[in-house]
Amino acid sequence: MRIAIVTETYPPEINGVALTVKSLADSLMALGHQVSVVRPRQLDDQAQAHEILVRGASLPRYPGLRFGWPAGGRLKKIWREQRPDGIYIATEGPLGFSAARAARALGIPAVSGFHTRFDSYSEFYGLRALRGWVEWHLKRLHGMTMATLVPTVELQSELESAGFKNVRLLARAVDVEQFDSARRSMAWRESMGLAERDCCALHVGRLAPEKNLDLLARSFAEMVRANPRVKCIVVGDGPERARMQAQYPFIQFLGLKRGNELAEIYASADVFLFPSETETFGNVTLEALASELAVVAFDYGAAHLHIKHSKNGLLAARGDPARFIELAGLLAHEPALLTTLRQAARQSIRALKPITVAERFISILKEQPHDATEPRTQTLSAR
Question: Are residues 207 and 318 in the same domain?
Fold first, then answer.
């Protein structure tokens, strides 16, 4: 099949959406499908052969991420000349919206992905009054596509209750060859000042207001209180980094890391804390499990799907920060439990394969009607 993917974030940007979309594109090409990726041009960027770059700009108050300007006219021209069999709209910004309109105008089947809780994020950026508008915009865009793809049953149920139509489950996977405990490096640990018996507590992610970072710091502090041999490390960047570094000097911030360097850091740690309560999934949970780390997370998203409490990780009820802190401290002073969880972590997710996700995506796309000119109607419900 010939598939066009439209996304407003893509590597070398580092975030869950960018990496998820890249994994899907790579897996589809590995299956022999012809894939084109439409995305905003980034700084000093050069398009690969299968990429179409459009104009974009940095997000307000978050210059590390960009969005794409509308490109409907250009997309119609490209898609008329080389018509895709299906289109995947991964993001809901101006570029994604224009792509949905172009696909509908040309009668090309299009599906969309619900990757980011922009409705929830509005409350963290001083835009609470706009939450209703954001919800309306999301529902309108997804209503213009033939199906909305989500990674968990709980999110599927939530969107269906909110009035979204034809919400389909598309699971996530992790590259267990990239994220592998075999990459554990004593040299890296020594460079961080970690002795063999010390405990490395890790967090990887965007440093942004919606990520519950103060709970992360409080949990790190509890681990250090319980065991002075715990070292706390954060990988990632974002608008909250400067504040976090100033407020929590006991945490070491390494900035953005990619590829094998990131995989080595994961594998060389012992504990992974993931305090966010605003994710649609939480890809880093799978990366940590694949790297054989003991994960502490809230019981939803990827953690709910893949962690069995006290078997291969620890789960706190969503909305219970005190329990999250308690569980982090528990791992710091109970090495036997830490060892048990780490030994079970990788085994619990090693069967996940990105290629399987791509096969499921193709099956969903083939199920959509060929006449894609009429949008799905969605009723707006109060939330």
Answer: yes
Which whole number is the average pLDDT over 91-114?
95
Q: Which helix (H) or strand (E) holds 24?
A: helix 16-30
Is residue 342 domain-shared with residue 363, that is, in the same domain? no
Tell me 12's DSSP state.
T
State the pLDDT at residue 67: 80
- CATH number of 239's domain: 3.40.50.2000
Domain membership of residue 233 (yes or no) is: yes
30 within a domain of the structure (yes/no): yes
Contact indicator for 307, 330 with CB cutoff of 8 Å: no
Task: Locate the DSSP E strands across 138-274.
Answer: 147-150, 167-169, 199-204, 230-235, 251-253, 271-274
Q: Which residues, listed in sequence order, are joined to residue 89 by a DSSP beta bridge? A: 6, 112
Residue 330 near residue 314 (C-beta atoms within 8 A): yes
Structural domain including 288 reads: 181-348
CA-CA distance, 253 to 247, in Å (whole number)? 12
Rounded to 5°, angle at Cα 212 from 306 and 320 = 65
Whether pTM exceeds 0.90: no
pLDDT at position 382 over 60: no
Query: How confident is the model at residue 68, as a pLDDT?
Result: 87
Contact by Cβ (8 Å): 198, 268? no
Domain count, the chain: 2
Q: How many residues would you count in the chain?
A: 383
Do both 150 and 280 map to the same domain? no
**Helix ranges restricted to H, 201-350:** 213-226, 241-247, 259-268, 283-290, 301-306, 321-333, 335-345
Q: How far apart are CA 205 and CA 194, in angstroms?
A: 22
CB 69 within 8 A of CB 57: yes
Residue 252 lies in a domain: yes
The upper half-sphere exposure of residue 309, i.e. CA atoms within 13 Å in the direction of its Cβ, equals: 11
* 190 and 43 co-located in one domain: no
Measured CA distances, 173 to 20, 27, 132, 300 (Å):
9, 11, 32, 16
Which tens digits make up the pLDDT trace of 272-300? 999 999 999 999 999 999 999 999 999 99
Could you please report the per-residue DSSP string of 303-346?
Answer: HHHH--BTTTBEEE-TT-HHHHHHHHHHHHH-HHHHHHHHHHHG
- Maximum separation of any 2 CA atoms in the chain, in Å: 64
Are residue 339 and residue 299 in the same domain, yes or no? Answer: yes
pLDDT at 135: 78
